[in-house]
Amino acid sequence: MEGEGYEWEHLGLNKRAICSMAISQSNDIFLGTSGYIIRSTDNGITWDTLKYMLTNFDDIEVSEDSMVFAATYYGVLRSFNYGDNWDLVFNNQIGDAWMSSIDIGHPANYI
Questions:
Q1: If you write DSSP's letter for every residue of 25-92 in order, what string do you get?
Q2: What is the tens place of the pLDDT at every residue in 7-33?
Q3: What is the largest CA-CA distance in the chain?
Q4: How far is Cα of residue 12 from the mean position of the Cα atoms in its chain?
Q5: Under CATH, which number does the domain 2-91 receive?
Q6: CA separation (Å) from 26 to 22, 41, 43, 105?
Q7: Model pTM score
Q8: Where in the chain are the domains?
Q9: Rounded to an integer, what distance in angstroms lies between the CA atom of residue 33 and that of residue 38?
């Protein structure tokens, strides 16, 4: 596609509904999709699956020091190493409500 001096190129991710996106300071791209968190370290040419859950990843935030947070129906997930490992840090005990948006407070990484 062309328009106003910008060109777009399709780089894959067929049949994936993208729910959220974040870019780290090292230019890693994180996408939250329906069921997966995926990451590209080469500007979208290749993608690695980091986490699978039976839920949408509605929001992703990346901190300055390699922490990644993801909001889901089940609560908030956190990674200390750019998404290689994940912990559930807030469990949704409310029932019919879910986390759909998060924000990181700097510099202490409060969510």
A1: TT--EEEEEEEEEEEESSTTSS-EEEEEEEEEEEEEEE-TTS-EEEEETTEEEEESSTTSS-EEEEE-
A2: 877 766 777 788 899 999 889 999 988
A3: 48
A4: 17
A5: 2.40.10.500
A6: 11, 9, 11, 19
A7: 0.78
A8: 2-91
A9: 8
